[in-house]
């Protein structure tokens, strides 16, 4: 079963949030795995508060970036995006690591700004969030044929 992008159908807010929720569950599982590895490397003892905070601040954002970029660069879809039939596209068809970094950083900034960067989809005539605009990408809905 092949999938094609519907003409002029950038994904709306609900589908994006739903796909993001699915992906967050997968990312939490990855974080649990990292925590288990960290405890195992610490002779089975829980990490100190300082070690846990350091791990969170240093490793977790990097892991999230690797998680998303790997999926985006592989086929333009995370698992959540596959479930909700969404795909990242660019004007020239080739998503770059730089575009992934721009999307990732600006999506975090947009969420930290009380979600305004994502809610912007409701006000943009093309359903684009801040990170879509800045990275020159768009999220399209796919139609199954």
Descriptive account of the structure:
By secondary structure, the protein is an alpha+beta fold. It has helices at 13-41, 49-58, 60-75, 79-83, 97-112, 116-119, 130-135, and strands at 3-10, 86-90, 137-144. Strands 1-3-2 form a three-stranded antiparallel β-sheet. Helix 3 (60-75) packs across helix 5. The chain is elongated. The model has no long low-confidence stretch (mean pLDDT 90).
Helix-strand layout with pairing:
Layout: E1 3-10, H1 13-41, H2 49-58, H3 60-75, H4 79-83, E2 86-90, H5 97-112, H6 116-119, H7 130-135, E3 137-144
Antiparallel strand pairs: 1-3, 2-3
How large is the share of residues in beta strands? 5-15%
Global Rg: 17 Å
Biggest pleated sheet: 3 strands, antiparallel
User: End-to-end span in angstroms?
Assistant: 6 Å
What is the percent of helical residues? 55-70%
Q: Would you tell me the overall average pLDDT?
A: 90
The string of secondary-structure elements, in order, is EHHHHEHHHE
Continuous helix count: 7
Number of strands: 3
